[in-house]
Amino acid sequence: MRILVVNVNTTTSITEAIGEQAASVAAPGTEIVPLTPSFGAESVEGNYESYLAAIAVMETVRAYEEPFDAIIQAGYGEHGREGLQELFDVPVVDITEAAASTAQFVGRTYSVVTSLDRTVPLIEDRLRAAGLSDRCASVRASGLAVLDLERDPQAAVEAIAEQAERAVRDDRAEVICLGCGGMSGLAERVVARTGVPVLDGVTAAVATAESLVRLGLTTSKVRTYAPPRPKKMLNWPPA
């Protein structure tokens, strides 16, 4: 089984970290292929960058020439999952949805701890669109930019753990979801601070993708995710 794990930003060190985290939980026989878009922002923290990333991720997967069995979109609250489902028959798993859906198996309510406050509405909208918002106790911002997670990992852990503790204490969350692909690898340290299950979206997405492939499931093409209709595209792809 081969799973493509596509970073939504163009920072290769984040792609590498996401790939390592994905590989750490992959079953024997599962090959994880991390991919970085060839264009886009170094970090995705708003609607413009998210829509740009959606196009970049789709084009990155379209350019991949080897066979694959599933796709993971490794961006929290980002756009584009539906477009990937139109383009490909294989299962497409978004890390936002994978973490939230998995959280509901291990607790009644969950909270998401993300990076900047401006990303909170994007995550709330993605959870609502996916039908996963009813049991979301809160989406909290740590105040850290995505690239801050690499620059000062210790400060990142402290800020994320603080918001996780508040989510458990004040919002009555029973599970914490780490709301950024760049937070891969922080789960154990947040568990130690909060005492509740903590979900990393990348690892949850790998487990979900593997399960879908083993069940022999593909993306339904009868209506919502039918392939794009053939038509003339003006100046696309750009030169």
TrEMBL record:
Uppermost EC category: isomerase
Organism encoding this protein: Saccharopolyspora rhizosphaerae
Gene3D superfamilies linked: 3.40.50.12500
Single GO MF descriptor: hydantoin racemase activity
E.C. code: 5.1.99.5
Protein name as annotated: Hydantoin racemase
Family that this chain belongs to: Belongs to the HyuE racemase family.
Pfam families reported in the protein's UniProt record: Asp_Glu_race (PF01177)
